[in-house]
Amino acid sequence: MLTSRLILIFILLCVAVEGVTAQSPQGNDSQQLTEARELNAKTVKLYGEHKYEEALPLALRVVDLVTTAFGKTDSHLILPLINLGDLYLAMLRADDAKASFERALTIAQTSFGRTDMALTRPLDELGHLMRKAGEYQKAADFFSRSLDIKQKLLKPTDVEIARAAYWAAEAYRLNRAFSTAEPLYEQAIKLYDQAGIKDAELVEALRRCLIVLTSENKKDKAALIQSRLAELSAEQGIVEGGIVNGWAVKLAQPSYPLGARGAHASGQVRVEVLIDESGNVISADAIGGHPLLQAASVAAAKESKFTPTLKSGVPVKVRGVIIYNFVIQ
Predict the structure, then answer these.
(1) How far apart are CA 42 and CA 28, in angstroms?
(2) Nearest residue to 321 (alpha-carbon basis) of 244, 266, 264, 260
(3) pLDDT recorded at residue 22
(4) CB atoms within 10 A of CB 14
(5) Which of 10, 54, 162, 281 has the fewest C-beta atoms under 10 angstroms from its C-beta?
(6) How far apart are CA 296 and CA 286, in angstroms?
(7) CA-CA distance, 44 to 53, in Å (whole number)?
(8) What is the model's pLDDT at position 21?
């Protein structure tokens, strides 16, 4: 997903650069833009080969060339800066990625106002960065802005609105603003249904919505969502198991990270797991809880073992949630 997205942005940048080059007089600016276009092609190739360290200086050079040609606040810099942010993400350099996306957002707002589609990519990426950093309210603010723009400018049934609603809902859920998250999940589910999407995107929206409804003790709505999940899981050969702590043959316990103790981090961490036909955990993902406690919980979940689940006498995969409770002694 990330690779194809970055390549698309590089292609769009090449188109933009070529268009401007055709309108620019021959001279130094034209040479700079030609070099930028050539560097783009090289960067795409290196990125596709996962040679991020080699690609980075080329992407930085593109930003410099476009800045020299158009200025520090020109809209032509938006795509190169998003490119750069994507490369930093691939290299796990979150702070540098954040700075690139923030600069792209500032330029987009200055150039086009606060309700243009050019703002949505940096808003979305900043939302994801804030979510991963545990700054859930900031993430919610970014995703909500992106959602508002998409709702104003896209067709009402556009699946991008569903995705924006889902990510906004996720941020609010993680921030425990369940009453705000619930209608956003419902909006996403409705749009996925209208688009005929029945794959992982719809399943994830339903499952996260179920967590919110359970937390709000809305049993009737939760039962309807659970029924839909059961139908979809049956199609995919996966059974929804709910809370699976009680099924464990071996429920590995997480260590209490020293950094988490120092920060007085405590409380419940929910880890979503996929259990194979033999009872082994084949994937684990933290879906709630303090960020400083999540890595230890995921590591413990992966070491756990469960009783195999049979459906009509045949072993099946089970998707469920392990709950860990951290209490500072």
Answers:
(1) 21
(2) 244
(3) 41
(4) 17
(5) 54
(6) 10
(7) 13
(8) 42
Residues 6+ apart with CB under 8 A from 299: 254
Q: What is the pTM of this model?
A: 0.70
Contact 133, 291 (CB under 8 A): yes
pLDDT band at 235 (very low <50, low <70, confident <90, very high): low
Token pair for residue 60? 């930085």
- Report d(CA 53, CA 77) in Å as an integer: 21
How large is the C-alpha radius of gyration of the chain? 23
Residue 60, Cα to own-chain centre: how many angstroms? 25
Rounded CA-CA distance 127/85 in Å is 13
**For 88-125, what is each residue's pLDDT tens digit?**
998 989 999 999 999 999 999 999 999 999 999 999 99
What letters, b where the CB count within 10 A reaches 16 and e where it falls short, cover 135-156? bbebbbbbbbbbbbbbeeeeee
Geometric angle at alpha carbon 200, from 127 and 268, rounded to 5°: 60
Under the banding of pLDDT at 50, 70 and 90, the label for residue 29 is low
20 pLDDT higher than 60: no
Locate all alpha helices (DSSP H) within 239-318, ordered by sequence: 258-262, 291-302
Pairing of strands 314-326, 267-275: antiparallel
